[in-house]
Amino acid sequence: MRLLTKSAVRVASVATLTLGGLLYAPSAQAAPSAASDYCTGYSLIASYPVKTSGGTSYGTAYLYWKESSGFNCAVAVKNSAGGAGTKNYMSVTLTACKETKPKATCQESDDVYSKSNDGDNYAHYAGWVQVHTGKGHCVKLDAVIWKSGTFAQFSSGAFHCG
Questions:
Q1: Which residues have a Cβ under 8 Å from the Cβ of 10 and sit 6 or more positions away?
Q2: How far apart are CA 103 and CA 97, in angstroms?
Q3: 83-93, pLDDT tens digit by residue?
Q4: What is the rounded end-to-end Cα distance, in angstroms, of the chain?
Q5: 12: which of 26, 45, 120, 145 lies 20 to 30 Å off by Cα?
């Protein structure tokens, strides 16, 4: 019997782990179990209810920040009132703002990574999306969830001015 070299063992181990991850990975729309499971490597800054005009929450928009890179990240997650588990349209959008102080409006930054959107018919969540604001610039967060002809939304002005 031949003994494998350390390099061969490492390659075989990585291949096994990679293949195992592919075979047993959850579906792309399986809802993570906790808010910290979205935007891995980022810090959760805050969460905001995505509400109808009547005040019913259809879900939550989560905003994250990664100080080392200057990127913000966001997801919108449906709850049971918003039809979690049933595909309907939802979206989340992040916009990097030129503003350096909170303001009701946001003038989009000239940065190449200034706007990111994810919208489609999803069963659990839209996103994640990310934009670069760097230190000192604000971000704008928008989230929409549709259910049976009614929509819920969250829309900020320029805020979280890193």
A1: none
A2: 10
A3: 999 999 999 99
A4: 60
A5: 26
Using pLDDT thresholds of 50, 70 and 90, give the confidence band for residue 35.
low
In this structure, how many other beta carbons lie within 10 angstroms of the beta carbon of residue 25? Answer: 9
CA separation for the pair 27, 25 (Å, rounded): 6
**Nearest alpha-carbon partner for 35 in 46, 24, 27, 26:** 46
pLDDT in tens, 134-146: 888 999 999 999 9
**Which structure tokens are listed for 32?**
């993570």
| Token digits of residue 111 | 């940065």
Q: Which of 121, 59, 60, 116 is nearest to 90 (CA)?
A: 121
Do 128 and 116 form a contact (C-beta atoms < 8 A)?
no
The first and second tokens of residue 87, run together, are 């595909």
